[in-house]
Amino acid sequence: MGTFLIIIISVLVTLGIVTLVKQSLGQKKTNEQSIILLDKIKRVCKFITVEGDFAEIYHYEDVKEKFLKLISSKKKALVVINAKAHVGFDLSKLKMDANATTKKVVLTHFPQPEVLSIETNINYYDKKDGMFNKFEASDLTELHANAKAHIQEKIPESGLFNVARGEALEAIQLMESIVETIGWKLDYSALMIENKKHVYYGILVVLLFLIQSIYYPDIPLEILKGKYANEFSKFIEIDGMKVHYRDEGKGFPIVLVHGTAASLHTWDSWSKILKKDYRIIRLDLPAFGLTGANATGNYSIYNYTEFLNHFLTELNIDNFHLVGNSLGGNIAWNYAVDYPEKIEKLVLVDASGLPTYKKQPWIFKMAKTPVLNSLFLHLTPRSIIKKNLEQVYEDDTKISNELITRYHDMALREGNRQAFIDRAKTDFKPNSTIHIERLKSLKKETLLIWGENDLWIPLDNGKRMNSLIKYSKLEVIKASGHVPMEENPKESLDILYKFLNEY
Fold this sequence. Notes:
Strand content: 15-25%
Structural class: alpha/beta
Number of domains: 2
Largest sheet: 8 strands, mixed
CATH class of the largest domain: Alpha Beta
């Protein structure tokens, strides 16, 4: 009996030891798993960065007085700053712990967005020394430092911090996915505000921050001219407006007319090539670009058509090829109906002017909606422009920060936001009968270029327009949206050249 008892006790002790060993090994494995997991998160999510391009202009002056302040000497320069800023989160500053018992990764601290780097390129124009006050190396060093500080001040206004916060959310989601791959959970409840009082305060702070981050005042014309006008830019008074246009190249004239919310820059890729063989005239329509609002507030197609005629008459251009995109296409084909003797060939790129089964783009609905359109006059975040471009482009990867900035800046030109609202309120609803008859009356050789995946004016409109115009042909560009001259410049330009060279 004693022997049997000893055997029983020995078995129990052995089982106990085996269990403890297994638990120890399991705990060790879990702990090792948690350490590996945390290391993996830190390596995958070390940095979140967003990039922004800046172009700023400011006037530098320095006055020194000599000879008992009887003589002053001034040096000055026009300073153009081009800079690239990186804003983001240094995720090496994350604070998190792994709880092996509950199989949770607990996120206790998430860093605030910060400026990670600023790269500046400075050019000096109209640099003039004073008689007793000349530029020295120390002055240029100081100017570089001031330029960097100037860009640093502009970054909060740019919306980069907001973009970075959006990227931060994606990083947390990535962390969550990594954690879930091994059956763990990510707990970030520690980041939440603890009591209601703080919640209300936090909401207020967030709202104030959001309002501040999306509030954009009008940008004066002179600032935008320094940024977006070049040596080919000219201004001419037409119908009481200072109209911005460019006249480049030599040869038979081609007139390019942009669409809604765009500017003459939409034709940059085309113009660069076309001006080698043709005289290229492009302009900012009233309500857009550097031209700005029409004092009359009249944005009917008829008024746009007459404006275009006044502009071309002032430039003494009486025979030309006419090209228009979207709204510009609508203006172009109506112009060709009213002034056929002036048009050699007509090119319509995703042109408006026929009814469409598509719902009106949301940005037009916003402009027509009371309260929302009033907010739009002051609260115009880059995200609105980005969302609009994502509808216009088929391939979002072609939408650069520089492109968003240009469209955003042009929207903020003094008077343009109100003009956009006024234009959106104008009744552009096509009258099927009238428009069909006018399109049928076109006798000019016409090329229709259409993006296959245009979300604003679908390809079906291009097909219908092609069936109505007697001497027309339709060319469809695959993997393209509403602005193929921007998104697919080579393909669309090849089509244009072939058409222009046909006899």
